[in-house]
Amino acid sequence: MTRIGIYGGTFSPPHNGHLQAAKAFMEQMWLDILYVIPTAIPPHKEMEVPVSAADRLEMTRLAFSSIEGVYVSDMEIARGGRSYTVDTLRELSGEDRRLFFLCGTDMMLTLDQWRSPEEIFRLCYPVYIRRETDKTLDGLIVQKIADYHQKYGKVVRRIVTDPIELSSNEIRARLAEGKKISHLVPQAVETYIRDNHLYV
């Protein structure tokens, strides 16, 4: 049984927090391969700064190129339209595969509001990672995980790592203000952003 991880997002731009999450995901879920998949059009949020899908895909490839076992896929961009997780799970599922889907706390708390949540839980094992230190969410997280287990028969697992409080939105804001981002993104990503005059 091949253990396959799925890590989606806008990756606009990809940053060191994304890499930290990917590495922890691979290690703690014992993944054989991790698909990192930039969305075409995210269904849950609007793109604040228009950057082409081609640019986001190339930045993501540059960001993750040094991590063994990671494959950056254009499947959602090639599919076009709004990117729904259930469609990607259908495409990647197979009898010889066990799928693990990584999301942040905010996404995990709303999984039951996504398209075809029953099928999502049937096709994969959801895994979440804390991207914040808000203690007021602790009780809600515990309750949601219990609700999902009762409703869908799956335990949502947690990646244990230091909270990742870095966001792409923060990096875009720093770029717009002319501030440095070299400590926040891989060097190849910063070079690509500068060379292509993105987020300015």
Compute the average pLDDT: 93
Q: Please give the count of helices.
A: 9
- Which ranges are low-confidence, i.e. pLDDT below 50, for 5 or more consecutive residues? none
Sum up the overall morphology in one term.
Answer: globular
Approximately how much helix is present in the residues? 40-55%
Features:
200 residues; alpha/beta; Rossmann fold; six-stranded parallel sheet; 17% strand; globular
Description:
- There is one protein chain.
- This protein has 200 residues and is α/β, with parallel strands linked by helices.
- It is 41% helix and 17% strand.
- The chain is built from nine helices and six strands, in the order βαβαβααβααβαβαα.
- The chain has helices spanning 16-28, 53-64, 75-79, 85-92, 105-108, 117-123, 138-152, 168-176, 187-195, and strands spanning 2-9, 33-38, 70-72, 97-104, 124-129, 157-159.
- Strands 3-2-1-4-5-6 form a six-stranded parallel β-sheet.
- The longest helix has 15 residues, at 138-152.
- The protein is globular.
- The model has no long low-confidence stretch (mean pLDDT 93).
